[in-house]
Amino acid sequence: MRGFAVRWSVLIRLIVILLLVDTSQGDPRTHIINVTCNQQLSNNAAIYIPNFVQLMANVSRQIQTFKSGTSSTGTGPDSSYGLAECYGDLSTEDCILCYAEARTILPSCFPNNGGRIFLDGCFMRTQNYSFFEEYAGAEDTVVCGNRKGSRVFRDSVRQAISDAVRDAPRSINYFARKQALSDSADDSTYVLADCWNTLDESSCTECLDSAFASILKCFPSSEGRALHTGCFLRYSNTNFLNPEPTGNNNGEKVSRVFTYFLTILLVMEDVRHSTFSNLIGSNDIKLLNMLNRSSLNFKYSTIVKATNAFDEANKLGQGGFGTVYKGLLPNHREIAVKRLFLNQRHRAGDFYNEVNIISSVDHKNLVKLVGFSCLGPESILIYEYLPNRSLNHFIFDAVRGKELNWGKRYDIIVGIAEGLAYLHENNKNRIIHRDIKAANILLDSRLNAKIADFGLARSFKQDKNHISTGIAGTLGYMAPEYIAYGKLSEKVDVYSYGVLLLEIVSGMPNRGIRTSEDTSNLISIAWENFKQGSMEELFDQNLMLNNGTNSKLKKEIERVIHIGLLCVQEVASLRPTMSMAIQMLSKNIDPLPSPANPPYMPDSTINTVNNHTSVPTVSYSSFIPR
Ligand SMILES: *[C@@H]1O[C@H](CO)[C@@H](O)[C@H](O)[C@H]1NC(C)=O
Ligand SMILES: *[C@@H]1O[C@H](CO)[C@@H](O)[C@H](O)[C@H]1NC(C)=O
Ligand SMILES: *[C@@H]1O[C@H](CO)[C@@H](O)[C@H](O)[C@H]1NC(C)=O
Ligand SMILES: *[C@@H]1O[C@H](CO)[C@@H](O)[C@H](O)[C@H]1NC(C)=O
Ligand SMILES: *[C@@H]1O[C@H](CO)[C@@H](O)[C@H](O)[C@H]1NC(C)=O
Ligand SMILES: *[C@@H]1O[C@H](CO)[C@@H](O)[C@H](O)[C@H]1NC(C)=O
Ligand SMILES: *[C@@H]1O[C@H](CO)[C@@H](O)[C@H](O)[C@H]1NC(C)=O
């Protein structure tokens, strides 16, 4: 019976997938037109975040039924009010997709206390006060296209807009669409007008009237959008409107109802209380992949239970991409729950990328992904729980450093190298981690190294160009070519690995960037000691080699310093690959080549650096409940 039940559910899924792909011809129009964040900070972040999440959970539920929703949580200065609405021509499925995009982007306004986002298919706004009846404000704005329309077009647009503005306030959802076709496709006109459902009819009329007045400023452009506090108005000479539901085609109607029914079945079966909040990129491939991987999918409620509602007491720490909590599943398995929801840079697309990457890799030196939850109000990753925290808690601590003798440290050094070599050299997905550092090396119960935080990882296909747009990473570990030019290759990780080797040997963190003046930088010290033949001065006191008896160990440690210096050479091509580094460690490559100078940063570059690295600064220090 069980087998049958399982197969039946698989069958339903397949049918749903096929129907979704085949029959949903709609476009969720997830293109973002404008995000405007409030200027004021939230009153108390620790209260704001859970309130926000609850707010969105509530709005999500309404969106699934009504394609719009409002809600509020909290009291006084900690209140949150939220409104989301899809424009009238979106199907329910498309609305969910558009809302999901808005829901993922708007939190980037945090730590400010709210904001608004206009997409081409939907609108969303949050505030700390009830704004549901507002329909005009200083933020009202227009966005015009570049191309010029013809004279004929302008006249027909004016007429169509005026019709839409007249009809929308009287229609059931405050929505109107108009189109005027012309012999020349360029002169056809398409118009959409939509007010938020929370307004009364006269407010809707006033909003659209003023939107009409401002959108005229776009003339003679062939495209215009008015983004007003209580409404959205758009015209274009390209047909952006979704096809109208065809009422008289019974066959199609039946198939749509069937699709809808099955979608509901699927939603009930799989996600029950949750929403498609992160089901972003609008294309069905992602939906497919997501469903395909549902064996890793956790219900949001399970995670909430496991972490005791993200209890502060269960907090393990904070990474660049979210807060990590310890959790306990009903089967007593311990997990680490990474809550990604309020991050400036982490969009749902990245989330899928991350899930796909992490679930496709499997290596003893990589932290294992247990699952994810992306259908609830937040994006969450679930990892195996590692009890002994991260390497930085040991090596940079005079007392705990004693728990890692040289033998253990050496195993960790080899383990990290093997994990990285696997990431770099696995055929399916060349992966560059981009943020190798002591804090991202976790230790299991036997103190084996496991590389964590693929938050910055991107799948790297062979033929993509290697210039990254947004620099991410941690300053002291970042390769010069990456800082200065955004040039990304595996050698960026090799550089970070080199820094890490020097840190593990010395027990000292490498701070900042090495400049010509600065002699206190770890790489400078290591390089000087290497040249003087006094590498022993770099050794961590905790390595207990003071009695000088163990020359074999000393040789081994010096060799690691040497390899570290090879890894941090200025010219990326001179740095070894990770598999070469492994061979160097195991003495398969012997003698070692001489390292060239490690890089200095000229002061001019440093200025560029500081300007560029404002991105990671934001992403690392922001949104953390204080
Ligand atoms: C959702 O929000 C609406 C409007 O604020 C409120 O009436 C309703 O009780 C909320 N539901 C839940 C479950 O919080
Ligand atoms: C909203 O937040 C701002 C800034 O924190 C505060 O000054 C204002 O009083 C808050 N409004 C309400 C209605 O609580
Ligand atoms: C977004 O809208 C605000 C006003 O609400 C305006 O000041 C800003 O320039 C707009 N941004 C873009 C990119 O259009
Ligand atoms: C599901 O995943 C498997 C393996 O990852 C893949 O071979 C298959 O094509 C996927 N199926 C769909 C429908 O995406
Ligand atoms: C590592 O974790 C294990 C299991 O929890 C524990 O017994 C051990 O004391 C920990 N070791 C260190 C050095 O913290
Ligand atoms: C001295 O070296 C021996 C042999 O390696 C080692 O067992 C011992 O712990 C060292 N003593 C100290 C005080 O470091
Ligand atoms: C970095 O930003 C500062 C302040 O905006 C500016 O004065 C400086 O010229 C910038 N440096 C570079 C190299 O662009």
From the alpha-carbon coordinates, what is the Rg to the nearest angstrom? 28 Å
Per CATH, the superfamily of the largest domain is Gnk2 domain, C-X8-C-X2-C motif
Q: Summarize model confidence as the mean pLDDT.
A: 77
Given the helix and strand composition, which structural class is it? alpha+beta
Main beta-sheet annotation:
5 strands, antiparallel
Percent helix: 25-40%
* Amount of beta strand: 15-25%
The CATH architecture of the largest domain can be given as: 2-Layer Sandwich
Shape: elongated
How many helical elements?
Answer: 18
Strand order of the largest sheet: 1-4-5-3-2
N-end to C-end Cα span: 52 Å
CATH topology group of the largest domain: Killer Toxin P4, Chain A
Number of strand segments: 19
Which runs of at least 5 residues are low in confidence (pLDDT < 50)? 1-24, 248-284, 341-347, 459-472, 602-626
CATH class of the largest domain: Alpha Beta
> How many structural domains?
3
Domain Gnk2-homologous: 30-131, 135-240
Keywords: ATP-binding, Glycoprotein, Kinase, Membrane, Nucleotide-binding, Phosphoprotein, Receptor, Repeat, Serine/threonine-protein kinase, Signal, Transferase, Transmembrane, Transmembrane helix
Domain Protein kinase: 310-565
Signal peptide: 1-26
Describe this structure in words.
The chain has 626 residues and is an alpha+beta fold. The chain has three domains: 2-251, Killer Toxin P4, Chain A (2-Layer Sandwich), CATH 3.30.430; 294-384, Phosphorylase Kinase, domain 1 (2-Layer Sandwich); 392-619, Transferase(Phosphotransferase), domain 1 (Orthogonal Bundle), CATH 1.10.510. The chain is 38% helix and 16% strand. The protein is built from 18 helices and 19 strands. It starts with a helix and ends in a 5-residue tail after the last helix.
